Fold this protein.
Amino acid sequence: KQEVTQIPAALSVPEGENLVLNCSFTDSAIYNLQWFRQDPGKGLTSLLLIQSSQREQTSGRLNASLDKSSGRSTLYIAASQPGDSATYLCAVKGDYKLSFGAGTTVTVRA
Amino acid sequence: DTGVSQNPRHKITKRGQNVTFRCDPISEHNRLYWYRQTLGQGPEFLTYFQNEAQLEKSRLLSDRFSAERPKGSFSTLEIQRTEQGDSAMYLCATTTGGTEAFFGQGTRLTVV
């Protein structure tokens, strides 16, 4: 069974700092890894998708890396802003479904 | 709006009542998933459709839960004889195979 762990569970930083969010998974036989953002009481918004053959993916201030062999992914958010405050979830896709971590809740202080 | 649409957004029901949720996928997305999320946890897989065929069901999906996707379009998730433990956010996601998954805004169920 795929187990996904996200560390830390919560993070508080001053505005402008770079954020580093970690995700680890136990089964390296994945098709892709996806990072999501979730605001309180809302659904999930897709941020980045990394296919298993890729090492990283970038979108604006966001960069995600994937090391499939070691079962790790890292999401970097540059120059954080108060609007980045949310819960960030990583999910790995196995044969048919996504398996999620519990998320990292980020607070960016103005 | 061409995203995944879920209705209702919120549902409050008394214990023992039946509830039904609806998910309208992004058009041409042949795969549809239902997930359940409780406070402080990541979403947990419930069931999966490819077109109209229900291919996988989690052990989390008790006999009180049933899902359908007639004609491979919208999907419904019904919970019979609701219990307080059913209170959660129910999320629907759609995709076209190995590509990006898109989620709806979810249905928040509260059983009182």
Q: What stands out?
A: The interface with chain A takes residues 4, 6, 33, 35, 40-45, 48, 55-56, 91, 93, 98-106, 108 of chain B (CB under 8 Å). DSSP finds no helices and eleven strands in chain B. The CA atoms of residues 41 and 86 of chain B lie 15 Å apart.
